[in-house]
Structures are given as C-alpha cells and as structure tokens.
Write a structure and sequence with these properties.
elongated; single chain; TIM Barrel; 2 domains; 18 strands; nicotinate phosphoribosyltransferase; alpha/beta; 36% helix; 7-stranded antiparallel beta sheet; 378 residues
C-alpha cells in the first residue's frame, strides 16, 4: 500500500540495479565466477553505520566479510568493509549493501556533526516526519548512534530499543484555543515522568508566552521556542530576552529548548544560551555518504580499476590520535605497528555472523571520537 519493498524481496537480491542481474546471466552463461575481494570506500569522512544490516543481508552465503565497527570515524579512501568470496554469491547485493551503508552512515554522520556543535547541551532527533514513515526506525537508530541524546518517533524509538521523547505540537494549543488551558491540560493528563515542557510561540511572542508558562505551570521543566526562520530575526537575542524575563520572575531553573530548521552552525551559535536542541530535517534528510564498492583482487591478483587502490587492505589506528595507516594485507610484519589496532574485523565467516552490534556500544564509540574533531566537523 505504501510502496515499500519487503524484507523477502531485499533478501532475495531483487532490490538491485538491473545490470547486476544481467551480469549474473552473462557470467553464468560463460562459466565465469572468480574468487574476488570487493571493498567499500568513499572520498568522505564520517561515522560508519549499517554494518549490522549488511551482515544480515549476506548471512548464510559462502562469504567472508570484514568491516569497521558501527560508530567508527572513517577517512577518505579507507575500506570500511570488504567482502571475499565468489562474485556471483554477492553480485546482485551490491546495490543493497551500498544503500544500507550510505543512508545509515549519512544520518549518523550528520548527527555526529550536530552533537559536535552542541557540546554538552542535549540534542533530540525531531525529523522523522521529513522522510517516508517506513524509515523512522532507520532515522532514529542512526541519529542516536551518531550522538543525538534522544529521539521523538514512537515506533522508530521502539524498533531501536529506545524511549521516545518530545514536547507538544502547536495543534494541541490551537485545539484549546489558547495557551494556558492547553498547557494546564497537558500537565493534568500527561504521565508524571514526562517532563513539563511548554511550547511558547503559537499566538504571541516568545517572551510573552514563556512568562505565561513559567507563572502558570508549577513544575515547568522547560519552554520550547520553535520560531520559524521567517519570523525569527536575531534568535540569540530572543533567547536572551526570554531568559531574562523568566529569571526575574524566579524561574531560573526553567530551561530553554529550541527547534525549527536548525543546522550545526545554528546549534553552535546558540549553545551558550540554551539548554537543548530539537533538530529535525537536517538529520533525517542528511545526504548519504557516497560509498562505492569495487573489486580490488581477483584470484589473488591485484585488479583495481582506475582511481582505486588494488589489493586487500587493513587499517591500523592509533586511538590516542585517531591517526590511521592503510596497509596491504600481509605486509604488516614489515612495519612497527606498536600502539595501533586493526579496524577491519570479522563480521561474517563462511556466511555465519561472528560479530555483535550493540547500539549503545556503537554510540559510545562515536562519542569517544568527538574530542578529536569537534571543530573540524562544524
């Protein structure tokens, strides 16, 4: 009904570019099926995600897959994953392999940039409405993995094993016809463990509504300013004015949460005057990472096309600096690699999944790399 390709079709390799099916036909007809190594690389820098999805896509096929862990910061031209086996065992899956990695890593990378800009301030993913609803789980999982502190989509959060969070829409206030009744009704009905956050920009300016909220809602946690850019002006000045007016009324403990078309530069500009951010479109609609998959070895021979580096490789990282070395596999013993760890580890061995993919571990890994690249990612 909603134009969704189902799991069985994807697992059958039919969500693919048709030329892979034609390639299969040609190679099978001519009896050609070499043992190859195919690696995935990109000219970009970012946060890797989607390795677990690739593992489940290729599970049960006579292939070996090695990859970086989800949450790893990768650099241009580094293989983040390689597949080793007979080409016809994975040829038709290239489209889906890349789609899974490109989309997930794009969202995770943008979330990482937003978190780098926010510093210690809280950021929540608000953007699932900007994409097809079937993608809510993909969006929220990868937004969280990349560094967002919370997510708002109910089903997407459940799928990722998270607790959805959020405030209220303008529609609630409009249905009541005025702000105070809407806020008080929310306070009366919402579970006690839900923070009392009032949306303060529906009918009056942000200062007026914030003062109304902090003087009418007893246990107010925060006000949310969702001012659209077309009416925003100097947003930092608006926030400072709201802060002043709440403080002089004894509401020093009420936080200010902002949302509405924010990108990493907006977050960086506002992080010293607000307590949290809701970021939607810029994360949910993040551009995909431009990964490509290329055969680099055939029957043990180097065969990379122009613009690619031949041979199966390993990446060795010094985690104290995030400095990497790309080495041809089998040449490691010639170099001093003390203090470095290999990044490409086994994911599938002869079709059996041999790695696990805990979301919290991937997020911890991503966040552990923030200190090395906060400024460069903004």
């Amino acid at each position: 009904m909603f134009g969704i390709i189902d799991d069985d079709t994807i697992l059958a390799g039919l969500s693919t570019d048709v030329y892979f099916l034609r390639t299969e036909e040609v190679l099978a007809n001519k009896g050609i099926n070499p043992n190859v190594v195919a690696e995935v690389t990109t000219p970009a820098t970012g946060i890797l995600s989607g390795i677990d999805d690739v593992a489940h896509l290729l599970k049960g096929k006579p292939l070996d897959v090695y990859a970086m862990k989800n949450g790893t910061l990768f650099y241009p031209r580094e293989p983040v994953l390689y597949v080793e086996g007979r080409y016809l065992d994975f040829a038709r899956y290239e489209t889906s392999i890349l789609g899974l990695l490109c989309h997930a890593s794009g969202i995770a990378t943008k979330a990482f940039k937003i978190k780098a800009a926010a510093g210690e301030k809280r950021v929540v993913s608000f953007g699932s409405r900007r994409q097809h609803p079937c993608l809510a789980g993909v969006i929220e999982k990868n937004a969280y993995l990349g560094g967002m502190d919370g997510v708002s989509n109910y089903a997407g959060a459940q799928l990722a094993g998270l607790q959805a969070e959020g405030t209220m829409p303008h529609a609630l206030i409009i249905c009541f016809g005025e702000q105070v009744k809407a806020w008080q009704s929310f306070d009366d009905v919402a579970p006690k463990d839900v923070p009392r956050v009032c949306l303060c920009d529906t009918y009056a300016d942000e200062k007026t509504e914030s003062v109304l909220a902090c003087t009418n809602i007893r246990d107010l946690s925060a006000v949310r300013l969702d001012t659209p850019s077309s009416r925003r002006g100097d947003f930092q000045a608006i926030v400072n004015e709201v802060r002043w007016e709440m403080d002089i009324r004894g509401c020093n403990n009420v936080e200010i949460f902002v949302s509405g078309g924010l990108d990493e530069q907006d977050v960086r500009d506002l992080r010293d005057v607000v307590d949290g951010f809701g970021v939607g479109s810029k994360v949910a609609s993040a551009p995909p990472i431009d990964f490509a998959m290329d055969i680099v070895e055939k029957e043990g021979e180097f065969v990379a096309k122009r613009g690619k580096l031949g041979g199966k490789k390993q990446i060795y990282r010094d985690w104290s600096t995030l400095d990497d070395m790309i080495l041809l596999s089998g040449t490691e013993e010639k170099l001093d690699l003390e203090g470095r760890e290999p990044l490409l580890g086994p994911v599938l061995q002869d079709g059996k999944i041999v790695a696990d993919f805990p979301l919290e571990k991937a997020r911890e890994l991503a966040l552990s790399q923030l200190k090395f690249c906060e400024e460069s990612f903004i």
